[in-house]
Amino acid sequence: MRQTRSLGCLHVLGLSLFAAPAVLSGQDFGGWESPEGGWDYVYEANDGEDVDGELAGGGSLDGTWNHQNGSDAWDGSGPGDEFRPDGVTPAAPGGAGSMVVLGAGEGGGDADVLSIVDTGDPRSRGFADPSNRKVWFCHDVSQDGVDGSFSLRDGFTLLVRSRLHPDVDPAAAGWQLPDGGVDNDAGQGVAPGYTLRDGGKGGHGFYDSGLDRNFSFTPHGTKGYQFPPQVGEGLPPANFLDVGDNTVFHAFWVMILAGAQADRYDVT
User: Fold this and answer.
1) Distance from C-alpha of 111 to C-alpha of 100, rounded to nearest angstrom
2) Residue 30: phi, psi to the nearest 5?
3) I need a labelling partner for 51 at 20 to 30 A (CA). Which of 115, 125, 134, 244 fits?
4) How large is the average pLDDT for residues 68-75?
C-alpha cells in the first residue's frame, strides 16, 4: 500500500518532539521498519531547523512548515531565549527551539528534538502577540509530491516519538500563566499537558481539508496520552492511554485507512 502523509499540525504544551536519530540496524524510527518506498517526509530537528519563517520570509522550522494560522502566536523564540530572532525584542515565556537531549536517542545515542513550551497567556504581563500563548505548526504534504486530490482515505502513516518536557517545574513562579493548559497538575513534578480541545486539536495530528476531518492525540501531565472518542476501543473513559512515565520518549505509529462510509476513515 502506498504510504502517504496528509497535512500535519502540532499544538503542544511542554513537549519535546522526536527527531531522527542514527538509524538502527535493520530498523528505522521508533523501532519499526520504514514503509515500503520510505517516508514522504521526515522532520529531523537538526541544528538550525527551528527557523521562524514569518521573520525569514519563508517556511518555518526546516523551511517546510508554517505557523500563520489562528491557532498560533509563536514569537520565533525558543524556551529560555532572552530575545526574539531579531536580537532586540524581548522573548515571551516559552516558545519553540531545537536542542540535543543527551542519551535520549534510539540505540543509546543522543536525540535532536524540537522542544515546545506553552506557559499560558502572558499578554497581561506586557507581552503582546505574538506571545507564545499558543503554538501550532503545520506541514502541507503537497510540498512532498503528494497529489492535491489526496485524502486520508487513500492511506496515511504517521510516526511520532515524543515526551512531556521533564525539566519544566509547573510549581515554579510564572510557569502557569492564565489560560494555560487544561487539567493543570501543578506541583506534581510533571509539566501539565493538554486534553483534546477546540474541535479535537491535540499535540500530534493531521487534517484533511477535503473531508474537513482531523485526527489528533495529545500528552497529558499524569494520565498518559489522550486519543479521540472515535478511537476508544480498549481505552478507559476519556480515552487516556497509560504509557507509564510520559516524561520519557514513547513512539506512536498511527495508520489511517479507508472506512466503510465515504466520509469516514479507520485508525489503527
Assistant:
1) 6
2) 70, 10
3) 125
4) 88
